[in-house]
Amino acid sequence: MLGFLRKNQNYFLLLISIVIITSFLFFGTTQKIPERKPKKEILLGVATDGSSIYLREIEQMVRFCVTDRFDNPSIKTGVINFLNDGVIRNDIIKSGLAGLLLEHDFDRIQPELRAKLSQFQGFSSYSHPEKPSISLENIYAKFAPELLETLQKFRTHTDVTPLVFSDIVSMYQQQQILQPELIRQYLLYEEKVSGATTDPHLINKDLQLFHAYSLDEWFGKKFVELTCQFIHHCASEAVQRGYSIQLDEVKGDLQKKSYEALRTLTGGKTLSIEDFSSYYYQMIHLLGMEEEEMLLIWQKIMLFRRLLQDVTQGVVFEGSGLLDYFKYAKEKISITKYQIPKNLIFNDIWDLLQLQLYITKTSPGENVLELPIDSLPIAEVKSRSPEFIEHIYEICITEKSMSDLFQDIPLQEMWKWQIKNWTLLQEAFVDIRSCTSDNPGDQLHYLDEIDHDLHMRIDEFTKKQILKENPSRIEKILSDSTKENRIFTIPTYGSSTALKGFTKNAELIVFLDEHSEKASSVEKVDLDKEIFYRIDSISKKGESIVTFARAKEEGILNEFLHRELQNFYDEGLCTERVLKKPFEEIKEIIALEKYQTLFQQLNNWCIANIGHPAKSPDMYIKYRLYPWLYAQKNKLQDAQAYINSTYGQQWNLEKSISILSRSQARAGHIPEENFDAPINSWSPVGCFNEEEIGFFQLDNRIRPAKEEFTSFILTNQALLFLEMKHELTRELLQNFPKIAYVEEVAENA
Predict the structure, then answer these.
(1) 328 in a domain, yes or no?
(2) Which of the residues 49, 52, 462, 503 could staple to 236 if both were Cys, CB 3.0 to 4.6 A apart?
(3) The model's pTM
(4) Considering 569, 594, 619, which residue would you say is the last residue of a domain?
């Protein structure tokens, strides 16, 4: 999939260049710019140096900054501003200054931010009407998972806070890697590969996230204007501090950067001076300015940049003192971890007792603290505890999902049914009763404009009705589909998930036994319950003992344990003080008494090997598997194979190799002395974290490379310089007077 993206990236550069050049051709290539009548200057406020800030100045800077050469071309305009190298994108948003500006004027920005929250939360992204897996959000999941995660988090906001703005910033930055046209090509590709019916709307669908292209569409007009006011103030401040940039230097800088940008957008083509000049002046024309006005804007941008960049001049980042710390902090170790399986992690005393019950019922259990390697004979387990037996069948089956059946229904057939049964649709869906037209075209157009989720529910309802009216259709699909031989392992008790239509394992086993070795096929079809399969043959292959993990998952152990404790109580085997109270009130005490041999042996082992007793349920939970882990570690140290039998394999330790830094080791509860231990040494038995219990062998020690140190220094230097820019920005914002926004003054002008 990523290869598809890389393969087609040049196509999109070409597309952008065509859009840009076409827009210029549409307007012509003359350098002459029509003369404009002078406008009345409207005062917005005063800069820090006492100079006036006029409405037209800010309007022009907003017009220049609201788009840049990195933007996706809007389907509305088809034009991007190649003169702008990403002033707000890079200097304000990427640098983190945007958050400081928002904080400075949050009260006045908040109403627009609230509108953006409502607008973006109401956004409905594209999904194929027939195959919902072909969707914009699935593309995000594949190629930009962080974007999807942020989008999902953004939908949970209920109030406007700076976090809303932060999420919009994140989504704005993350969505830039996904060009809408690239998304369209990939959706068309998925549509073709999946065999789904062609969606006629996809070719013209706006696939840009939130349909937002320019900065004001993302953040609101006031935020863009606030940023431009800030740039203007910074430029005034720079002049006060002695900075000076002549207009010929400004023009040279602007033309150099725009020439490089235009070459990139045109696929690296060398442009003549005439061609570039033509594009250059046409861009100025499209922005509604004269060249001198453009140069004055760029002059302010250059002054703003120089002011913030020069704050770090003369600052020497001395990294030699960090070398020892770096070597210490960045040293890594390679370890081989051995940890108990996830199903043996005990959350409470009942998990522990379920394991003990399982061992008691399925194995000889000579050593109560060990996990047994061998089981009892199947016949003995079946006679004593049939709950722990599972039945094995080989079934020749053809199974289909609802989406598989829906795929065979063309869009045209679905639309015909909807037109024919419009009254029935309106009875089933109250929300479409407002459409009173009898015209089929109006009805289909109405469905196309309604809420996406409602549209999908109506389409699903339609397809179900079509199948109900044509049951032979399902039969044909099942008979024509490829058969598959599958092995089903079904416990005697518990709830079944092996085949739809059965709620209990016992019910399913009876059904399979009845039809075993029969020549006739069995068909199970229920549209409402989404059951669609055909069984051609059933062969019983034998019986085995249910694994601990499955017995726990199926609820067998929980039910059995409850029954065992109830019998222990009913038979009067508890102490007298226990028997005087109701069963449910003292269930845990009953369990401790019934399994007192286990807990006593565990306590004795802890005293002998850990140095302290284990006399509480929490300590029983923590140390229950330590005796077994100690035994496994000793076998591994002696290079012994520690498990051989099929039954015993369910206790196999999970083996993995990890490379950990010192900080990662601490987070994983690896003590400092173990990190610094000799190569090939073994750690004590213990916890890596709450969900990882085991031990490890230290395989190797990895020293950081010189290149890593250089990168470390550069990263920290960049962070320091960025913080210096932030601090200067905070200082400047304190002294900058608030001025009116353009729309506030324009309304009163």
Answers:
(1) no
(2) 49
(3) 0.54
(4) 594
